[in-house]
Amino acid sequence: MSRQVLTNVYRLLHKAILLGALYACIGGGWLAHSAEPGEEEVEAAFLYRFAGYVEWPAEALSAPLFTIAVLGADGVAQDLQQMLPEHQLKNHPAQLRRIRRIEDLGNAQILFVGPQYNDELRRIIAQVADRPVLIVTASDHGLEAGSCVNFLLIDRRLRFEVSTIAAEHAGLKISAELLSVAVRVQGHGTGVPLATGGLR
Fold it and tell me: Are 31 and 59 in contact (CB under 8 A)?
C-alpha cells in the first residue's frame, strides 16, 4: 500500500473519530431520549461541542462562567438550558444566556443568532466586531455576513462551514480538527470544500 493511500486512510479514520466525538452528545448522551433528534437539538449539541475546538484569548476567559448566549432560537436555548447545568467548558461552569438584543450579550464567549434574525445579520455581527466571541449562525449567507461558524442543512443533515478570517478577526483560533470536518472553510485564499462528504 502506497504512502499516499495510507495517508488518505489515516485522514478518513481521523475524521470518523472526530465526528464520533462531536456526535457523542447526540447519539448517546443528552439527546438519547429522541431516536431522531431535531435540528435545534443538534444545533444546541454542536454549540456545546464547538467550545472544545476553539481557543479564546486569556482575557476572554477571565469571567467565572463560560457563557453561551442565544439571540432568538428559543428551541436551541431550551435544549442548551438542559445540557449546560453541571457541565464545564474551558474549565469554567457553563451557563446559557437568552438575549433579545445584542446589547445584552455581556461577556459571553459564544453567540448563536437564530434564523429569525437572518435579515439583520450584518448589523448584529458588526455590533460585536473586534470582540472575542465565536459567532454562530444558521443562514444561507452566514459567513458572508461575518459569522465564524454557520449551520447548513444539506440532504436533511445538519452540517457546518467555518470562516477562519472571521475567527482571526475576533482573536479566536479554530482547531485544525474542526476545520477538517467542515463542509467549507472560508479563509485566506480559500473557499473550497475541505470535507466534501460533510457530516454523516
Answer: no
Q: Specify whether the CB–CB gap between 11 and 5 falls below 8 A.
A: no
Exposed / middle / buried, residue 56 (Cβ in 10 Å: 0-12, 13-18, 19+): buried
What is the pTM assigned to this prediction?
Answer: 0.80
Pick among 3.40.50.300, 1.20.1630.10, 3.40.50.2300, 3.40.50.2000: CATH of 3-186: 3.40.50.2300
- 105 near 125, Cβ under 8 Å? no
What does each of the 200 residues of the chain score in pLDDT, given as a tens digit? 444 433 433 343 343 444 454 544 333 344 444 445 588 999 999 999 999 999 999 999 999 999 999 999 999 999 999 989 888 999 999 999 999 999 999 999 999 999 999 999 999 999 998 899 999 999 999 999 999 999 999 888 899 999 999 999 999 999 999 999 999 999 865 544 444 333 33
Backbone angle region of 44, left / alpha / beta, with phi > 0 → left and psi within -120 to 50 → alpha = alpha
